[in-house]
Design the sequence.
């Protein structure tokens, strides 16, 4: 049951056995779209600690098993949707461990980096089957490294600026965690989508070069990025905390930090969730797989 793939096939069913009060909070978060993120603290897991932070991507090992914290995290997330992965990301693994490595410290926009800021981005923004929700569980954060969030809600744009961001004029690149096979066209994408009165957003400001744009395109992008900067909220996750981010309305980032490399290093586990697997069927090799081609 602690195999990540077997577990995720049962997680939606088992999640219905969580207390109704918890299920209601998650349903309201999903249905009402009042909040950009949901933090669950005080979880009854990791009572004996998380163990040493791994030295590598343990999710790639054949005998990789989920801890109690990762299981609870998956149950919570399954109240929002179906856990998914991408073929370009650690072989389609559903769970991805986020750990700083010395060799990646100065690589920009890497989840294994630490020396450089990781700029605002929507998770998997480049991909048409991007998840609706990003879930993180904190295994260890002795460095007190901050996760930064900012919502599109309340953005003030002129009609012309709004129109241009709804047009397919922009490049949305992937981050280093994806080893893509070029099955997704990253150019000529829209930044905003959904309803104009309360738009959704997909952007990777971490790889965006505003200098490539001119006129109204640049003006609209700068206003959007300023909005995110001015409305940022800093969240320092504690051990066993689970946070779920609305990946349609919220960008996230990570400030630089001094990593404790080795067994005491910052350690998060990440799973992303989609409201339906059917919408990505043409991009998955079989009905049974949760790995989306990228």
Sequence:
């Amino acid at each position: 049951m602690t195999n990540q793939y077997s577990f995720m096939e049962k997680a939606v069913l088992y999640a219905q056995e969580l207390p109704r009060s918890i299920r209601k909070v998650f349903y309201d978060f999903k249905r009402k779209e009042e909040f950009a993120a949901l933090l669950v603290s005080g979880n009854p897991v990791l009572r004996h600690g998380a163990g040493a932070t791994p030295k590598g991507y343990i999710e790639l090992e054949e005998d990789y098993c989920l801890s109690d914290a990762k299981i609870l995290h998956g149950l919570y997330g399954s109240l929002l949707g179906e856990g998914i992965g991408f073929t370009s990301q650690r072989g389609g693994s559903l769970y991805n461990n986020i750990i700083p490595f010395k060799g990646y410290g100065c690589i920009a926009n890497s989840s294994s980096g630490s020396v450089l800021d990781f700029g605002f981005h929507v998770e998997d923004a480049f991909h048409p089957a991007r998840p609706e929700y990003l879930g993180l569980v904190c295994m260890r954060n002795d460095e007190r490294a901050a996760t930064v969030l900012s919502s599109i809600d309340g953005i003030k744009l002129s009609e012309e600026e709004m129109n241009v961001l709804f047009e397919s004029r922009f490049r949305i690149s992937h981050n280093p965690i994806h080893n893509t096979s070029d099955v997704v066209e990253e150019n000529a994408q829209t930044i905003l989508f959904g309803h104009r009165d309360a738009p959704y957003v997909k952007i990777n400001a971490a790889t965006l070069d505003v200098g490539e744009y001119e006129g109204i395109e640049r003006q609209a992008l700068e206003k959007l990025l300023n909005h995110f900067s001015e409305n940022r909220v800093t969240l320092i996750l504690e051990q066993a905390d689970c946070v779920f981010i609305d990946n349609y309305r919220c960008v996230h980032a990570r400030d630089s930090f001094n990593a404790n490399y080795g067994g005491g290093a910052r350690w998060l586990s990440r799973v992303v969730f989609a409201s339906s697997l059917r919408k990505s069927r043409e991009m998955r090799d079989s009905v049974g797989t949760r790995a989306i081609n990228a």
User: Anything to note?
Assistant: Residues 4-292 form a domain with the Double-stranded beta-helix fold (CATH 3.60.130.10). The chain has one domain: 4-292. The two ends are 28 Å apart (CA to CA).
